[in-house]
Amino acid sequence: MTEAGEKEQKMTGIGTISEILGRKGSNIWSVRPDDTVFEAIQTMADKNIGALLVMTGERLLGVISERDYTRKVALKGKSSRETEVREILSAPVITATPEDTVEECMRLMTHHRVRHLPVVDGERVVGIVSMGDLVNWTISVQTVAITQLESYISGNYPG
């Protein structure tokens, strides 16, 4: 079986955040609260991501996103080279757990109007998911379901 076939076979209709992290990886990009906003934006550009976790050691303090920069620095005429991340981070942090479902997280993100959810297992940060990750998962699951239904209708469905 191909790697793509194995991934399709492992996907469930429900989908948990753990499954998404298993597929996309659990890289965690972060900044410290005393870093400058410029440094944070530079890291986001370098990593091609839209948000960073703000951490002191292993402790999650908040999230800083491109939206935070736009609304709290650029539009207010502040200097990104002089403003510290602590001044504009979003807190308290809305988080997910590895056991949460894609649907639960989509609801949570929509309700709180956030695009990124840190994933925590107890007190430990184990990853981050974006709304894009959840949408991509949903599209993949629907594609697999459509393929299976087409196969069933055409009589090629095993079993």
Walk me through the structure.
By secondary structure, the chain is of the alpha+beta class. The chain has one domain: CBS-domain, CATH 3.10.580. It has six helices and five strands. Strands 1-2-3 form a three-stranded mixed beta sheet. Strands 4-5 form a two-stranded antiparallel ribbon. A hairpin with a 2-residue loop joins strand 4 (116-121) and strand 5. Helix 5 (102-112) packs antiparallel against helix 6. The longest helix is centred in the last third of the chain and has 23 residues, at 131-153. It is elongated, with a radius of gyration of 19 Å. Residues 1-12 have low confidence and may be disordered.
What's the CATH first level? Alpha Beta
Question: Could you say how many structural domains there are in total?
Answer: 1
- Main sheet overview: 3 strands, mixed
Strand ordering within the main sheet: 1-2-3
Q: Please give the CATH architecture.
A: Roll
Within CATH, the superfamily carries the name: CBS-domain
- How widely separated are the two ends? 18 Å
CATH topology: CBS-domain
Number of helices: 6
How many β-strand runs? 5
* Secondary-structure element series: HHEHEEHHEEH
Assembly status: single chain
Share of helix, binned: 40-55%
